[in-house]
């Protein structure tokens, strides 16, 4: 702690007397400054104990009062007047003005040199700095030992809370609370979800300070809360929050920064190790998709901790043209892994660059934590879509992958965030085809009929649609159109002539129906 006016006054070697402002002696003294100017404020920064013999001070009450106001407005924490030179005693108007502004006023006796006061304060400041450095080194060593232990991140959070005399909480990259210390702070830490979510949307590293009552806390306690993102490559890997009764001191700030650095290193791990794990997971996923499940199980059992057990789904994420999907796909992979780690759920992830842009494939338990996390991520990122396969056994993952790819194509074409295979299977064939290709096909095939309808009698397009919808039943189709069946027969012969195709051919009927339906989409 920095020296205070009270600690300076208590030094008996200085023989100081408090004449005013006795209720404000706990103010910290940042420096001692000596000045005989009637306005020394241009040379002050605030936090000083100002010493003067009063040579230039005015003699009237108004002048002395103005002098005190200037000092108080400049942030001076105390005024010491040396008697025996300009003044035999401290002027009473000066005492009254200081009492009015709550500015501590000290009488400095003639035998006490100003430099003696400066030395006392300087020594206390030096001791404070030494203590801060010593405490910081001790805290760094303590936190480092904790980080290297068995429960590294948990131990760091607990030691940090004890060092700060408050509470600390660690959140994963998705914003979920993973560690809190002490246990009683779980409710407070849980109510910082909105602030953590705001930081999660900003590049790392970033921080937020919440002074006063922590958001949403329904107690009489007031916390000073600091939330810090943890990450070294702009994407947050986690978040650290601390709460203390008072504002964090510079020494405590050093301790907090040490904890942030250690937790960041722990969460980031070595880039080589992360890349190796990603390559291993991607290789295992491709083996599973290729049907080599037995071999993948053998490899995963020794090196990867096993494969997902039970009914799984394949999820494929991607983005439409013109959308930079690299960062959202990276976040999706991270969030999926974090969700699996929280509940011990196995998953396989692979990134690849396909013909239609980057893709992320995830194999995870049906409706498990990973599955739900992936759905949550695509809802947060504009332009990102997800295709989801039907539930399948691990041995059928190859078929599930094809289903997920088709579902993703439908999602991207329709501008939807997520599409399940069940929706594709129960819907139309048209969404599976490229919109431009279907439109061009329909326009080219039906152009002769549309040109006829613009210049001649008889609505051939509508007649063809009615006849096909009734599966070639003349009477039913003619009734739908309100014409005689012979009229409809004539129109269908005209359709065959214009198109150069026979309506008796099943393939021709299918193509015409597809062309007609594409105009309705």
UniProtKB/TrEMBL annotation:
Residues in a coiled coil are none
Q: Which Gene3D superfamilies match?
A: PucR C-terminal helix-turn-helix domain
Q: Where is the Purine catabolism PurC-like domain?
A: 8-124
- The residues covered by the PucR C-terminal helix-turn-helix domain are 460-517
* PANTHER family in the cross-refs: CARBOHYDRATE DIACID REGULATOR (PTHR33744), DNA-BINDING TRANSCRIPTIONAL ACTIVATOR ADER (PTHR33744:SF1)
Name recorded for this polypeptide: PucR family transcriptional regulator
What's the source species for this entry? Answer: Kitasatospora misakiensis
